[in-house]
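Section 4.2 – Deliverable D4.2 (structural model, holo form)

The reporting period included a commitment to supply a predicted holo structure for the target in complex with adenosine-5'-diphosphate. Inputs used:
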Amino acid sequence: MRVLASAPAKIILFGEHSVVYGKPAIAAAIDLRTYVWAEFNDKGAIRIEAKDIRVPGLTVSFSEDEIYFESDYGKAAEVLSYVRQAIELVREEADANGRGITVSITSQIPVGAGLGSSAAVAVATIGAVSRLLGLELSNEEVGKLGHQVELLVQGASSGIDPTVSAIGGFIHYEKGKFERLPFMELPIVVGYTGSSGSTKELVAMVRRTYEEMPEVIEPVLVAMGKIVEKARDVLLSELDEDVRFAQLGRLMNINHGLLDALGVSTKKLSELVYAARTAGALGAKITGAGGGGCMYALAPENQSEVATAITIAGGTPMITRISGEGLRIEEVLP
Ligand SMILES: Nc1ncnc2c1ncn2[C@@H]1O[C@H](COP(=O)(O)OP(=O)(O)O)[C@@H](O)[C@H]1O
Ligand SMILES: C[C@@](O)(CCOP(=O)(O)O)CC(=O)O
Ligand SMILES: [Mg+2]
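Output (structure tokens):
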């Protein structure tokens, strides 16, 4: 039997980092996906073929306490830790420890770019392997297991990324609970710096600053939470669209300033943010963990001018659409 599952990337519209401290955040799935094939093998090992992660041609097998690398890249085990944890967790759920499973991954999502590649690969792997092992999990349950994978690998995770990747659409998220917001097309442009940041490291860096000076950082996190609540009110309001977009844009700019204050922006990210604003975007901010990766801009009138400004500033614009669909089982072959 072979199973193919896929799961989407996301953008965090408001509230990254502060969401790790129990504040709310708003995120949406987007139309870039990770695809995972799962099948049994008779070696009793976990075998992972990561076809297009930027460690080329990497294949690694784990069996008991032995690891077989079929390429000699030292960071391989670390890079594949989300996939390995996802498979181990599902095997445990299904009481199938020791069962040999091979997964093969292809992905459209840039890695370490703030678009939730870690959550998408975890969710798609859990989806494919759980179906292979005959577990009946709802997408919401898959999202919860995806959260556990992120916790195990990163040490800290709010769970917003695996939740939105599993269930799709547009959500308000707080402390493990989500509320679906009405689906809406937002006129956004994503700008990719071309460099990456590790969520694990950035979350740990913010934690160190928080522990060093909680009296300074806590009010920043509280303000970020207020931005999210205000943004939710604006999104759900009956105000004219142009008024709503203008308010959302201002909130994005404030949120960006606070993320910069936490130290997760980079020169390049801020250059793309300012280039987009100068070209007429109503607002622009980092999306995801930062340290490289992506920003996004709200540009109802001038998406193409903003995309050009991002290119001139040295970034890569990506026109993406919000995706209603979360985890999908694409194919089940005998
Ligand atoms: N296609 C993939 N195959 C295997 N692992 C992947 C894949 N895409 C992402 N990952 C895992 O996710 C990690 C990046 O996650 P993270 O630092 O949270 O950034 P982001 O989620 O913003 O892309 C990678 O280092 C790797 O471990
Ligand atoms: C920084 C954070 O808020 C979002 C991280 O998203 P990403 O891995 O950069 O796509 C962490 C989390 O919510 O667990
Ligand atoms: Mg991630």
